[in-house]
Design a protein that fits this description.
The chain is α/β, with parallel strands linked by helices. The chain folds into two domains: 6-356, ABC transporter transmembrane region fold, CATH 1.20.1560; 360-571, Rossmann fold (3-Layer(aba) Sandwich). It is built from 17 helices and twelve strands. The protein has helices spanning 6-21, 25-61, 65-113, 117-123, 131-171, 188-208, 210-234, 236-242, 245-297, 303-320, 322-357, 408-416, 448-453, 463-472, 488-491, 494-508, 524-537; strands spanning 176-178, 181-183, 359-364, 369-377, 383-392, 397-401, 422-428, 434-437, 512-516, 542-546, 558-562, 568-571. A six-stranded mixed β-sheet has the order 8-9-10-6-11-12, with helices on one face. A four-stranded mixed β-sheet has the order 3-7-4-5. α2 (25-61) packs antiparallel against α10, α6 packs antiparallel against α9 and α14 (463-472) crosses α16 (494-508). The longest helix is centred in the middle third of the chain and has 53 residues, at 245-297.
Length: 579
């Protein structure tokens, strides 16, 4: 993790290559070509300005007023071209950056949400922390860092190539007095810049290497702390009822302590890095003057040439010292690559592992739900269900009962196709004809209208139809707030949220309804009203429920009881018609 080695650059290429091979590659190549061209232009203009220094300072030294104004005019158009190139290089680089980020965000969301990877990564005990941060922050940081570092390195190489010939030629003008003799050393200034930069790069690499691991941990600790704050924001009522403020405060401060401790280590290491890099940069200002001072005081050089040498030396030395001046950014970028690469690998491993955990096969078999020799286990291998076979026909109804933890909800997850631990075969109706209701309904961000239409409702459903659904489940008081965007999961009680879930059923009219204790927060009278409503409004829909109340038996023709040790029994209780 802490080295810029071959494996690291393989990870970089693995992350970035899909974009540069995808559908947007030609526009990306076009943008990067223009940005690179502008980078070359900026380097060229810098070289021209360096050469300009000699004439300008010589004009000053010799009180040459016409030459002074002529050089000022030259500088004007050089500066104008430099400003234009610099502005548009930044603008086009940012255009490429946001397009690249859009593509990568879409790609990662597709892979994370596709095949229910987000769910399997949790139940398979994946070690990925804060995938939300990887997608929201790390992608942006990776793209920005990759472009800045790549273009910066390219600029450094081009700068070295542009200046090194000039610096080599200027070296022939220098005389080095030694032991009473004057010496001319071929490429003297170039060798001085190489030695100075090599020493600085070696030392800065040794001093700054620990920052890679420290920045990696800092991003993780920040994300963990932010996640803890989000948990408090999402569960204020539960925390308030428990009186858990002290515990939450202690937990959050514990997480912040990790941030504080790690950041303090970053500060100490950065201080050492800044001591060296600042000293290195300051010495670099006077170093070329020290190198050429003997020739100058022997009257072999004019002031203009001294300035030109200083600028050319600074260009070569700055290019050679790219790692020295950019090591902090390189360390942050390395940490981002490590996090994003790890996330990518975990997604791929989950795609490979989840289907292979068990051998549950699924088939969309039209108007029938059947299970053949199905065996389910908990993630730790504990048996939940053994050798189950059953058939549920359209319009039928079945109640799943058993002690808590016996696998009732897990059976629904297996039917939905999201539980990987087990063996057997499940034939089911198409998902577009089915609706699963968990015990705690999911209320997405948005208005009540959005919530009622989640996930497959028609966007053009009229307000009158939505209002009718709310009246049917005794939530008519919410009709005036249909288009209000509020934190409804915090405003509505669990019982009201479960009523909203039944309103979804009425609006989306699924032919197959799976309910996991979907009325647990309601009293028996309200439960009876809602089940009666389903029978009346959707008489041909199949209903499969999970529940503990004996009152639910009257609404289901079949009863499947699980014993919690893998055993099960199927019965057909005497069902009475609901009033």
């Amino acid at each position: 993790m802490e080295k810029f080695n071959r494996a690291f650059f393989r990870d970089v290429w693995r992350i970035m290559s899909p974009y540069w091979k995808g559908k947007e590659r030609w526009s990306a190549y076009g943008l990067i070509a223009v940005v690179v061209g502008l980078t070359f232009a900026i380097v060229y203009l810098n070289v021209r300005i360096t050469i300009w220094y000699r004439g300008f300072y010589d004009a000053l030294q010799h009180y040459d007023e016409p030459g002074f104004w002529r050089d000022m005019l030259t500088f004007g158009w050089l500066a104008a071209l430099f400003i234009f190139s610099s502005v548009y290089r930044t603008y086009l680089r940012e255009m490429l950056e946001i397009r690249w980020r859009r593509w990568m965000t879409r790609s990662y969301l597709t892979h994370w949400l596709g095949l229910r990877t987000y769910y399997h990564m949790q139940i398979l005990s994946d070690t990925t922390d804060n995938p939300d941060q990887r997608i929201a922050d790390d992608i942006s940081a990776f793209i920005r860092g990759t472009l800045q570092i790549t273009l910066g390195l390219l600029s450094a190489i081009v700068t070295i190539g542009s200046y090194i010939g000039l610096l080599w030629a200027l070296s022939s003008r220098l005389i080095v007095p030694f032991e009473g003799q004057d010496w001319t050393i071929s490429g003297y200034l170039v060798w001085a810049a190489l030695i100075y930069s090599a020493i600085g790069t070696a030392l800065i690499t040794r001093i700054g290497r620990p920052l890679i691991g420290l920045n990696f941990n800092q991003q993780r600790f920040d994300a963990d702390f932010r996640f803890g704050l989000v948990r408090v924001r999402e569960n204020p009522e539960s925390i308030a009822l428990y009186g858990g403020e002290e515990h939450e405060h202690r937990t959050l401060m514990g997480r912040f302590a990790q941030i504080f401790t790690n950041y303090w280590r970053i500060m100490v290491r950065t201080k050492l890095l800044n001591w060296f890099s600042s000293g290195y940069s300051q010495i670099a200002i006077i170093f070329p003057f020290l190198v050429v001072a003997p020739s100058y005081f022997l009257a072999h050089l004019g002031l203009g040439l001294i300035i030109e040498v200083s600028s050319a030396f600074g260009g070569v030395q700055g290019g050679l010292s790219y790692i020295v001046t950019s090591y902090s950014e390189l360390a942050v970028w390395h940490a981002v690559v490590d996090r994003l690469s790890g996330f990518t690998q975990h997604i791929e491993q989950t795609h490979q592992r989840a289907p292979g955990v068990g051998h549950i096969t699924h088939a969309d078999d039209g108007n029938l739900l059947y299970v053949e020799r199905l065996t389910l286990q908990a993630p730790d291998g504990r048996p939940l269900l053994t050798d189950l076979s059953l058939r549920v026909t359209p319009g039928d109804s079945m109640l799943l009962t058993g002690p808590s933890g016996s696998g009732k909800s897990t059976l629904l997850r297996a039917v939905a196709g999201i539980w990987p631990f087990g063996n057997g075969k499940i034939g089911r109706p198409p998902r577009r004809e089915s609706l699963f209701l968990p015990q705690k309904p999911y209320l997405p961000l948005g208005s009540l209208r959005d919530i009622l239409l989640y996930p497959h409702g028609s966007a053009d459903t009229s307000t009158e139809v939505l209002s009718g659904a709310l009246r049917a489940v005794n939530l008519e008081r919410l009709i005036p707030a249909l288009d209000e965007d509020r934190p409804w999961s915090l405003i509505l009680s669990l019982g009201e949220q479960q009523r909203l879930a039944f309103a979804r059923i009425l609006l989306q009219k699924p032919r197959w309804i799976y309910m996991d204790e979907a009325t647990s927060a309601l009293d028996e009278s309200a439960e009876e009203d809602l089940y009666t409503l389903l029978r009346r409004e959707l008489p041909d829909s199949t209903v499969i429920s999970v529940g503990h109340r004996s009152t639910l038996l009257q609404y289901h023709r079949m009863r499947l009881s699980l014993d919690g040790a893998g055993g099960w029994t199927m019965a057909t209780p005497e069902a009475r018609a609901a009033p």
